[in-house]
Write a structure and sequence with these properties.
Blueprint: H1 6-15, E1 17-20, H2 26-41, H3 47-50, H4 56-71, E2 77-81, E3 100-105, H5 107-110, H6 112-118, H7 121-129, E4 135-143, E5 153-156, E6 164-165, E7 170-176, E8 187-189, E9 200-204, E10 213-217, E11 228-230, E12 237-241, E13 246-248, E14 259-266, E15 271-272
Length: 292
Protein backbone atom coordinates (compact mmCIF):
# COMPACT_ATOMS: atom_id res chain seq x y z
CA UNK A 1 0.00 0.00 0.00
CA UNK A 2 1.49 3.33 -1.07
CA UNK A 3 1.72 5.95 1.66
CA UNK A 4 0.74 8.55 -0.95
CA UNK A 5 -2.45 7.72 -2.89
CA UNK A 6 -3.37 8.57 -6.48
CA UNK A 7 -5.84 11.08 -5.09
CA UNK A 8 -3.03 12.76 -3.12
CA UNK A 9 -0.97 13.02 -6.30
CA UNK A 10 -3.94 14.54 -8.13
CA UNK A 11 -4.51 17.08 -5.36
CA UNK A 12 -0.81 18.00 -5.30
CA UNK A 13 -0.80 18.57 -9.06
CA UNK A 14 -4.01 20.61 -8.99
CA UNK A 15 -3.46 22.69 -5.84
CA UNK A 16 0.34 22.77 -5.53
CA UNK A 17 0.20 21.23 -2.06
CA UNK A 18 -1.28 18.26 -0.23
CA UNK A 19 -1.54 17.29 3.45
CA UNK A 20 -0.40 13.74 4.18
CA UNK A 21 -1.32 12.40 7.62
CA UNK A 22 0.85 10.02 9.61
CA UNK A 23 4.27 10.37 7.98
CA UNK A 24 5.89 10.03 11.40
CA UNK A 25 4.74 8.37 14.59
CA UNK A 26 4.28 10.49 17.72
CA UNK A 27 7.40 8.85 19.16
CA UNK A 28 9.50 9.74 16.09
CA UNK A 29 8.35 13.36 16.42
CA UNK A 30 9.34 13.40 20.09
CA UNK A 31 12.77 11.93 19.29
CA UNK A 32 13.45 14.67 16.73
CA UNK A 33 12.35 17.32 19.24
CA UNK A 34 14.50 15.79 21.98
CA UNK A 35 17.56 15.71 19.73
CA UNK A 36 17.02 19.38 18.80
CA UNK A 37 16.79 20.18 22.50
CA UNK A 38 20.26 18.65 22.95
CA UNK A 39 21.64 20.56 19.93
CA UNK A 40 20.36 23.84 21.39
CA UNK A 41 21.82 22.94 24.80
CA UNK A 42 25.26 22.75 23.17
CA UNK A 43 24.73 25.75 20.90
CA UNK A 44 27.49 28.31 20.36
CA UNK A 45 25.81 31.67 19.81
CA UNK A 46 27.24 33.20 16.61
CA UNK A 47 29.51 36.21 17.06
CA UNK A 48 27.34 38.64 15.08
CA UNK A 49 24.50 38.10 17.57
CA UNK A 50 26.79 39.19 20.40
CA UNK A 51 27.84 42.43 18.70
CA UNK A 52 26.89 45.50 20.73
CA UNK A 53 25.32 48.34 18.81
CA UNK A 54 27.44 51.43 19.33
CA UNK A 55 28.11 52.95 15.92
CA UNK A 56 26.72 52.69 12.41
CA UNK A 57 29.91 50.82 11.49
CA UNK A 58 29.26 48.18 14.17
CA UNK A 59 25.71 47.79 12.97
CA UNK A 60 26.96 47.27 9.43
CA UNK A 61 29.41 44.63 10.63
CA UNK A 62 26.63 42.87 12.51
CA UNK A 63 24.39 42.88 9.44
CA UNK A 64 27.22 41.65 7.24
CA UNK A 65 28.17 38.97 9.79
CA UNK A 66 24.58 37.81 9.88
CA UNK A 67 24.34 37.66 6.08
CA UNK A 68 27.63 35.80 5.76
CA UNK A 69 26.57 33.35 8.48
CA UNK A 70 23.40 32.62 6.48
CA UNK A 71 24.90 32.37 2.99
CA UNK A 72 27.58 29.89 4.14
CA UNK A 73 25.16 27.70 6.13
CA UNK A 74 24.20 25.26 3.35
CA UNK A 75 26.63 22.57 4.50
CA UNK A 76 26.50 23.34 8.22
CA UNK A 77 24.18 23.32 11.22
CA UNK A 78 23.61 26.94 12.23
CA UNK A 79 21.32 28.95 14.48
CA UNK A 80 18.92 31.72 13.46
CA UNK A 81 17.10 33.76 16.09
CA UNK A 82 13.80 35.56 16.43
CA UNK A 83 13.92 39.36 16.43
CA UNK A 84 14.46 41.08 19.74
CA UNK A 85 15.74 38.12 21.78
CA UNK A 86 19.13 39.77 22.52
CA UNK A 87 19.72 42.95 24.49
CA UNK A 88 22.29 45.61 23.53
CA UNK A 89 25.00 43.63 25.31
CA UNK A 90 24.27 40.58 23.16
CA UNK A 91 22.74 38.63 26.05
CA UNK A 92 19.50 36.66 25.88
CA UNK A 93 16.36 38.47 27.00
CA UNK A 94 14.41 35.20 26.85
CA UNK A 95 15.38 31.58 27.72
CA UNK A 96 17.68 30.39 24.93
CA UNK A 97 15.42 27.46 24.05
CA UNK A 98 12.68 29.99 23.26
CA UNK A 99 14.95 32.35 21.30
CA UNK A 100 15.38 30.48 18.04
CA UNK A 101 13.53 30.96 14.80
CA UNK A 102 15.20 28.01 13.06
CA UNK A 103 18.23 25.76 12.82
CA UNK A 104 19.56 24.94 9.33
CA UNK A 105 20.55 23.96 6.72
CA UNK A 106 22.27 20.56 6.76
CA UNK A 107 20.55 18.59 9.54
CA UNK A 108 19.76 15.93 6.91
CA UNK A 109 23.46 15.32 6.34
CA UNK A 110 25.01 15.48 9.80
CA UNK A 111 22.31 14.46 12.27
CA UNK A 112 21.52 10.70 12.12
CA UNK A 113 17.90 10.99 13.31
CA UNK A 114 17.08 13.70 10.79
CA UNK A 115 18.94 11.85 8.06
CA UNK A 116 16.92 8.71 8.77
CA UNK A 117 13.60 10.56 8.46
CA UNK A 118 14.73 12.38 5.29
CA UNK A 119 15.69 9.14 3.55
CA UNK A 120 12.87 7.04 5.04
CA UNK A 121 10.93 4.53 2.95
CA UNK A 122 7.82 6.75 3.11
CA UNK A 123 9.67 9.81 1.79
CA UNK A 124 11.33 7.74 -0.94
CA UNK A 125 7.88 6.33 -1.74
CA UNK A 126 6.45 9.85 -2.18
CA UNK A 127 9.24 10.73 -4.62
CA UNK A 128 8.68 7.52 -6.60
CA UNK A 129 4.91 8.03 -6.63
CA UNK A 130 5.52 11.47 -8.17
CA UNK A 131 7.78 9.92 -10.81
CA UNK A 132 11.07 11.44 -9.63
CA UNK A 133 14.08 9.69 -11.13
CA UNK A 134 17.09 11.25 -9.44
CA UNK A 135 15.88 13.30 -6.46
CA UNK A 136 18.50 14.99 -4.27
CA UNK A 137 18.22 16.79 -0.92
CA UNK A 138 18.94 20.51 -1.15
CA UNK A 139 18.61 21.71 2.43
CA UNK A 140 16.83 21.07 5.72
CA UNK A 141 15.60 23.18 8.62
CA UNK A 142 14.09 22.82 12.05
CA UNK A 143 11.56 25.64 12.57
CA UNK A 144 10.37 26.50 16.08
CA UNK A 145 7.54 29.06 15.67
CA UNK A 146 7.97 29.97 19.32
CA UNK A 147 4.90 30.66 21.49
CA UNK A 148 4.05 34.35 21.59
CA UNK A 149 6.98 35.51 19.43
CA UNK A 150 7.12 33.09 16.47
CA UNK A 151 7.39 35.50 13.54
CA UNK A 152 5.15 35.74 10.51
CA UNK A 153 6.43 34.27 7.24
CA UNK A 154 5.03 36.47 4.49
CA UNK A 155 3.60 35.12 1.23
CA UNK A 156 6.33 33.62 -0.92
CA UNK A 157 7.27 30.84 -3.35
CA UNK A 158 10.14 28.51 -2.46
CA UNK A 159 11.48 28.66 -6.03
CA UNK A 160 12.26 32.35 -5.40
CA UNK A 161 15.11 31.08 -3.22
CA UNK A 162 15.76 27.68 -4.84
CA UNK A 163 15.74 28.38 -8.57
CA UNK A 164 16.03 25.71 -11.25
CA UNK A 165 15.82 25.58 -15.02
CA UNK A 166 13.28 24.41 -15.90
CA UNK A 167 11.09 25.43 -12.97
CA UNK A 168 8.92 22.81 -11.25
CA UNK A 169 11.83 20.64 -10.07
CA UNK A 170 11.77 21.57 -6.38
CA UNK A 171 9.35 20.52 -3.67
CA UNK A 172 9.30 20.93 0.08
CA UNK A 173 8.28 18.35 2.65
CA UNK A 174 7.10 20.09 5.82
CA UNK A 175 6.65 17.73 8.77
CA UNK A 176 4.68 18.81 11.84
CA UNK A 177 6.41 17.64 15.03
CA UNK A 178 3.53 19.19 17.00
CA UNK A 179 -0.01 19.97 15.88
CA UNK A 180 0.08 22.92 13.47
CA UNK A 181 -3.18 24.83 13.89
CA UNK A 182 -4.73 28.08 12.72
CA UNK A 183 -3.95 29.43 16.23
CA UNK A 184 -0.24 28.60 16.38
CA UNK A 185 0.78 29.50 12.83
CA UNK A 186 -0.04 26.69 10.37
CA UNK A 187 0.62 27.17 6.65
CA UNK A 188 -1.83 28.93 4.33
CA UNK A 189 -1.84 28.40 0.54
CA UNK A 190 -3.35 29.87 -2.61
CA UNK A 191 -4.46 26.65 -4.36
CA UNK A 192 -3.39 26.48 -8.00
CA UNK A 193 -0.91 29.37 -7.68
CA UNK A 194 1.97 27.10 -8.75
CA UNK A 195 0.98 27.38 -12.41
CA UNK A 196 1.97 31.00 -13.03
CA UNK A 197 5.77 30.89 -12.71
CA UNK A 198 7.58 32.98 -10.12
CA UNK A 199 7.41 36.71 -9.49
CA UNK A 200 10.90 37.22 -8.06
CA UNK A 201 14.26 35.58 -7.48
CA UNK A 202 16.79 35.91 -4.70
CA UNK A 203 20.31 35.87 -6.18
CA UNK A 204 23.87 36.12 -4.93
CA UNK A 205 25.46 39.47 -5.70
CA UNK A 206 28.95 39.66 -7.29
CA UNK A 207 31.82 38.74 -4.95
CA UNK A 208 33.02 41.61 -2.79
CA UNK A 209 29.71 43.48 -2.82
CA UNK A 210 27.21 43.94 -0.01
CA UNK A 211 24.48 42.97 0.57
CA UNK A 212 25.42 39.38 -0.31
CA UNK A 213 22.03 38.66 -1.89
CA UNK A 214 19.51 40.73 -3.78
CA UNK A 215 16.08 40.26 -5.33
CA UNK A 216 15.20 40.40 -9.00
CA UNK A 217 11.52 41.24 -9.46
CA UNK A 218 9.00 41.92 -6.72
CA UNK A 219 6.66 39.80 -4.63
CA UNK A 220 3.13 40.35 -5.86
CA UNK A 221 0.31 41.58 -3.67
CA UNK A 222 -1.96 38.60 -3.08
CA UNK A 223 -5.66 38.60 -2.35
CA UNK A 224 -6.05 37.56 1.30
CA UNK A 225 -9.35 35.85 0.51
CA UNK A 226 -7.63 33.34 -1.77
CA UNK A 227 -5.53 31.78 1.00
CA UNK A 228 -6.76 28.54 2.58
CA UNK A 229 -5.41 27.12 5.84
CA UNK A 230 -3.64 23.76 5.92
CA UNK A 231 -3.63 22.62 9.55
CA UNK A 232 -1.68 19.39 10.17
CA UNK A 233 -1.72 16.92 13.03
CA UNK A 234 1.52 15.96 14.78
CA UNK A 235 3.40 13.52 12.54
CA UNK A 236 1.60 14.67 9.40
CA UNK A 237 3.32 16.43 6.51
CA UNK A 238 2.56 18.99 3.84
CA UNK A 239 4.03 18.47 0.39
CA UNK A 240 4.75 21.91 -1.10
CA UNK A 241 5.30 22.62 -4.81
CA UNK A 242 8.22 25.00 -5.37
CA UNK A 243 6.02 27.62 -7.02
CA UNK A 244 2.89 27.53 -4.86
CA UNK A 245 2.27 30.76 -2.93
CA UNK A 246 2.14 30.15 0.81
CA UNK A 247 2.61 31.92 4.12
CA UNK A 248 2.20 31.47 7.86
CA UNK A 249 0.95 33.93 10.45
CA UNK A 250 2.85 34.89 13.57
CA UNK A 251 2.31 32.65 16.55
CA UNK A 252 0.48 34.61 19.24
CA UNK A 253 -0.67 31.44 21.03
CA UNK A 254 0.96 29.76 24.01
CA UNK A 255 1.74 26.61 21.99
CA UNK A 256 4.92 26.22 19.95
CA UNK A 257 4.74 24.78 16.42
CA UNK A 258 7.89 22.76 15.82
CA UNK A 259 8.52 21.54 12.28
CA UNK A 260 11.20 19.60 10.43
CA UNK A 261 11.27 20.57 6.77
CA UNK A 262 13.50 19.82 3.80
CA UNK A 263 13.60 20.42 0.04
CA UNK A 264 14.00 17.85 -2.68
CA UNK A 265 15.02 18.53 -6.30
CA UNK A 266 14.65 16.29 -9.33
CA UNK A 267 18.24 16.46 -10.58
CA UNK A 268 17.62 14.68 -13.90
CA UNK A 269 17.86 17.21 -16.76
CA UNK A 270 17.78 20.09 -14.27
CA UNK A 271 20.14 23.06 -14.01
CA UNK A 272 20.64 24.34 -10.46
CA UNK A 273 21.17 28.10 -10.68
CA UNK A 274 24.71 29.22 -9.78
CA UNK A 275 23.07 32.46 -8.57
CA UNK A 276 21.15 30.69 -5.78
CA UNK A 277 22.25 31.55 -2.23
CA UNK A 278 22.48 27.81 -1.54
CA UNK A 279 25.27 25.97 -3.36
CA UNK A 280 26.53 22.40 -3.08
CA UNK A 281 30.06 22.21 -1.69
CA UNK A 282 32.92 19.71 -1.84
CA UNK A 283 32.15 18.82 1.79
CA UNK A 284 28.46 18.39 0.99
CA UNK A 285 27.25 17.78 -2.55
CA UNK A 286 23.44 17.47 -2.65
CA UNK A 287 22.89 13.90 -1.39
CA UNK A 288 20.68 11.54 -3.46
CA UNK A 289 17.36 10.75 -1.77
CA UNK A 290 17.41 7.09 -2.82
CA UNK A 291 20.37 6.23 -0.60
CA UNK A 292 20.26 5.50 3.08
Amino acid sequence: MDFMTDRDVQKYKEDGFVVLDGLLSSQECDELKQRMNEIVDQMDVPEHCRTTFTTYHDEQLKTQGSADYFITSGDKIRFFFEKGVFNDQGEFKVPKHLSLNKVGHALHAYEPLYKKVTHSAKVQGIAKKLGLVNPVILQSMYIFKQPGIGGEVTAHQDATFLHTEPLGRVMGLWIALEDATVNNGCLWFIPGSHRSGISRRMVRTPKGTFPLTDFIGREQAYDEDKFVAAPVKKGGAVLIHGEVVHRSAENTSEESRHVYTFHIMEALDTRWSPDNWLQPTEELPFPPLFTK
